[in-house]
Amino acid sequence: SLTLGIVGLPNVGKSTLFNALTRNDVLAANYPFATIEPNVGVVPLPDARLGQLAKVFGSEREVPAVVSFVDIAGIVKGASEGAGLGNKFLANIREANAICQVIRVFDDPDVVHVDGRVDPSSDIETINTELILADLQTLEKAIPRLEKEARTQKERRPVLEAAKQAKDILDSGRTMFAAQKEVDLEDLRELSLLTTKPFLYVFNADESVLTNEARLKELRELVAPADAVFLDAKVESELLELDEESAAELLESIGQHEPGLYSLARAGFHTLGLQTYLTAGPKESRAWTIPQGATAPQAAGVIHTDFERGFIKAEVVSFADLIEAGSMATAKSAGKVRIEGKDYVMVDGDVVEFRFNV
Ligand code: GDP
Q1: Residue 349 is inside which H or E element, if any?
Q2: Which of 131, 288, 321, 326 is 20–30 Å from 199 (CA)?
Q3: Cα torsion at 140, 70, 72, 119 (round to 10°)?
Q4: Which residues are CB-contacts of 268 (< 8 A; sequence separation ≥ 6)?
């Protein structure tokens, strides 16, 4: 499954956040056989639709989609120079599908900031610089090889051109993700550049920031078009110890309506380019994860590979139509249940039953 790699400077709250991510009962209940690696935090994607579906179908349980975060330990400054931990740091980032940077915006005289002060844009630049330098090294090796290939193989020319363009962009201090409109990232795919990965920013904040709309707007603009999530990592870990009522009170005291982990899960899911569709029955109501743009057979394949191979058709009703009808039978007689074929592109929140040959 796709993962987000958590990175950040020392002392920004990565471990605190990661501990909160790894302690949730929902998963133990619904995925009893999943092996969960020590450096992987798997968070359920909050989905209020599941509860409503479970009511309509009388489902015994609800199974949410999940989002996986990998804790990427290791030094940051000098990582691109390739010594020891630095190499491992970059290799771990290469394996992740998106980068989730934790940035400190909380003030606490007792917690030392590595650069001596809270400065989000400088923190972002520090990480970007290491990734950009690593990508430049990759390109310095690749470009001479691509030049040679392009001399005899015409189809290699677009790759060479894209690599040269990428070098200019990185030389100017920008990431490929930030410049994605200027180059065809598809041409660069074989080079696995780190900065082409989608970025997500988590601002580890305290109440004074979380309740300051102007400051939040400023931080959001700093990282746009990447997603920004604001939370208090310390509070997130405390929430897990509390009953529902006390948790709600604590959240309200810092001006929040829901745990930050919920917004983090949603933003992570979005950054990875994923969406869900739903299945429901007496046993369970469940959200399944597919890439945005997936077709009906690809969606069926997520349940079982045989379902994709033997796909015949999908019976699809939108979540809203189903809930309005109140039952599958009513939705059917109202003509709200569509029969879709193998070219159908799934829409988030489709409630689906697949027909297939085995
Ligand atoms: P890491 O080095 O990025 O993994 O950072 P840690 O999670 O170990 O946090 C470093 C220190 O900052 C610890 O003493 C945490 O208790 C503290 N800390 C983490 N998050 C917060 C926060 O949101 N507010 C405050 N005041 N302290 C925090």
Answers
A1: none
A2: 288
A3: 90
A4: 4, 43, 67, 69, 98, 100, 200
- Class of the 293-356 domain? alpha beta
- Tell me, what's the ipTM? 0.94
Nearest to 71 by CA among 123, 17, 133: 17
Output the ligand 1 site: residues, CB below 6 A. 8, 10-16, 106, 108, 111, 204, 206, 232-234
pLDDT digits (tens, 9 = 90+) for 37-77: 668 888 899 999 999 999 999 999 999 999 999 988 765 56
Residue for token digits 């090889």?
A: 145
Distance 267 CA to ligand 1 centre (A): 22
Residue ranges of domains in the chain: 293-356
Closest CA to 252 of 220, 207, 196: 207
Determine the distance separating the centroid of ligand 1 and the alpha carbon of 174, expressed in angstroms.
29
End-to-end CA, the chain? 25
| Size of the chain in residues | 358
